[in-house]
């Protein structure tokens, strides 16, 4: 008993003694009695979950064994068409129960699946995994998983950029306060601000595409990366050993294998991919944080369903829960990216196994979290509500202060001393700020400037100087140019990945 909570009797069995390696305490537990990852139940898509599933993993092992056998046969080893056909016939019907039962006995996952495959393919049993080490299926499968998972990320990121581009185009000319140091600054437009979010995501897409373009299979390197076992198989024929790798790469859709390795591919590959996912997380975090602040200003609001509850205590609340979830998961990915960096740094010589348990967690969860983040981002952008009247109200509050530079420049053009008037405006601004902050009154800054003859102002001239369109600079033009030169080419390249129409470049 702990702090008044008793352990249920049905659970006591699972807490007795120590479990042997590979044993599970979950055999007679139902799903509600054991830990289940929230990535499976709440966050990640079914598509991404499948890429990291046992089904995908072990079917890929079998595809790799078939690729190896076909290549070895082509290069002259005594492997028959009948054996290949038998392997292909049972490629996808993995007999998991047989493999699991065998693993409890031999404590080796690869050899357990070799055994299980052999039970289904008695004629081919002797040539399964011929010449290979565990990393042939393990690491090559991981490379394939990295490729498949990255393609899902790219598709989802492209959809976010698509939604952001539509948002930016729609609001490219809508003025709003910009903020530096989270203090009101010169104006920008809602659409221009959206380009800042899209710009970073486009960079992330470019980086991940670069990583994919360099990704290669481990190939058939053998136990220490020297291909010694395959040299033995092919009686010292170096060209056949090299050709073996090229055939395997071609069969699995890669343009080649790494040129050198230990037993595993360099763990720096994992570190680089997770660093790239961290980039996506950083970009999403920035977007979601900005949106959370804008929602607190009541200028922009994330989607809120008709029956959604914002707070259990305060029924009126409309909390930015989706944006907060993006930030939460993004923090996880950013921190998660450190794990493969440490793993890469601490690999001993040609192989050590302290990477295995760590990689089983960090690689899947990094991709699953990033998948969830981008799904949320696409949803939030698509359903964002913009409130121009609130923005206009905030503009009007700050406009007197923002307009002072234009007022100053006009007075100088009429012959006044810039430095003297700068000091006058500073003094008036201090008085106006005190009126607002200390007494809750209007600042009346513009009234003070209008009454001061040194500024040569008339009500008509002042109204002209207060036209907000003068304060957004080239924001609308920058938005349009950015979409044309940076975003639309990215979207066009991924036209097949994107729901909704792709904007046409003009």
Question: Could you characterize the architecture of this molecule?
Answer:
With 506 residues, this protein is mainly alpha-helical. It has three domains: 51-127, Fumarase/aspartase (N-terminal domain) (Fumarase C, Chain B, domain 1); 143-163 and 189-386, Fumarase C, Chain A, domain 2, CATH 1.20.200.10; 404-465, Orthogonal Bundle (Ribonucleotide Reductase Protein R1, domain 1). The chain has 21 helices and four strands. The protein has a two-stranded antiparallel ribbon with strand order 1-2. Strand 1 (175-180) and strand 2 (183-189) form a beta hairpin. Helix 9 runs antiparallel to helix 12 (268-296). The radius of gyration is 31 Å and the shape is elongated.
List the helices and strands and how they pair.
Elements: H1 9-12, H2 38-43, H3 46-51, H4 54-74, H5 81-89, H6 96-106, H7 109-120, H8 134-170, E1 175-180, E2 183-189, H9 190-214, H10 228-233, H11 238-251, H12 268-296, E3 300-301, H13 321-336, H14 338-345, H15 356-383, E4 385-386, H16 388-402, H17 404-413, H18 418-439, H19 445-451, H20 459-465, H21 475-493
Antiparallel strand pairs: 1-2, 3-4
Helix pairs in contact: 4-8, 4-11, 6-7, 8-9, 8-15, 8-21, 9-12, 9-21, 12-13, 12-14, 12-15, 13-15, 17-18
């Amino acid at each position: 008993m702990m702090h008044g909570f008793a352990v249920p009797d049905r659970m006591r069995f699972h807490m007795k003694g120590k479990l042997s390696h590979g044993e599970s305490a979950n055999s007679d537990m139902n799903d509600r009695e054991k830990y289940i990852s929230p990535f499976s139940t709440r966050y990640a898509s079914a598509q991404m979950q499948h890429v990291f599933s046992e089904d995908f993993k072990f079917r890929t092992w079998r595809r790799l064994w078939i690729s190896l056998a076909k290549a070895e046969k082509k290069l002259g080893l005594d492997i028959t068409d009948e054996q290949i056909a038998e392997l292909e016939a049972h490629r996808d019907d993995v007999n998991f129960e047989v493999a699991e039962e065998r693993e409890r006995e031999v404590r080796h996952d690869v050899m357990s699946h070799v055994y299980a495959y052999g039970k289904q393919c008695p004629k081919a049993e002797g040539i399964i995994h011929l010449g290979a080490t565990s990393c042939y299926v393990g690491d090559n499968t991981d490379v394939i998983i990295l490729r498949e998972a990255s393609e899902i990320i790219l598709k989802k990121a492209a959809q976010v950029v698509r939604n952001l581009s539509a948002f930016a185009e729609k609001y490219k000319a809508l003025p709003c306060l910009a903020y530096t140091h989270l203090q009101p600054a010169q104006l920008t437009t809602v659409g221009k601000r959206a380009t800042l979010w899209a710009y970073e995501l486009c960079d992330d897409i470019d980086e991940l595409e670069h990583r994919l373009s360099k990704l290669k299979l481990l190939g058939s390197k053998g136990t220490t990366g020297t291909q010694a076992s395959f040299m033995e198989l092919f009686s010292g024929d170096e060209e056949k050993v090299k050709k073996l790798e090229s055939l395997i790469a071609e069969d699995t859709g890669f343009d080649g294998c790494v040129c050198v390795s230990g037993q595993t591919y360099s763990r720096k590959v994992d570190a680089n991919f997770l660093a790239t996912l961290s980039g996506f997380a950083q970009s999403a975090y920035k977007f979601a944080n900005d949106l959370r602040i804008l929602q607190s200003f009541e200028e922009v609001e994330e989607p809120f369903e008709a029956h959604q509850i914002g707070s259990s205590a305060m029924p009126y609340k409309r909390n930015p829960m989706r944006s907060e979830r993006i930030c939460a998961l993004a923090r996880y990915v950013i921190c998660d990216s450190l794990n493969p960096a440490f793993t890469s740094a601490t690999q001993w010589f040609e192989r050590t196994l302290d990477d295995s348990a760590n990689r089983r967690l960090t690689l899947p969860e990094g991709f699953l979290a990033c998948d969830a983040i981008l799904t949320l981002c696409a949803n939030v952008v698509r359903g964002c509500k913009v409130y121009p009247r609130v923005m206009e109200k905030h503009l009007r509050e700050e406009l007197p202060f923002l307009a002072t530079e234009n007022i100053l420049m006009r007075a100088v053009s009429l012959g006044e001393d810039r430095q003297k008037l700068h000091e006058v405006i500073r003094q008036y601004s201090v008085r106006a700020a005190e009126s607002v902050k200390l007494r809750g009154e209007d600042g009346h800054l513009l009234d003070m400037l209008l009454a001061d003859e040194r500024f040569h102002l008339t009500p008509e001239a002042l109204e002209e100087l207060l036209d907000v369109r003068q304060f957004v600079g080239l924001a609308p033009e920058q938005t349009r140019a950015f979409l044309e030169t940076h975003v639309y080419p990215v979207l066009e390249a991924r036209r097949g990945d994107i729901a909704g129409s792709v904007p046409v470049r003009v």
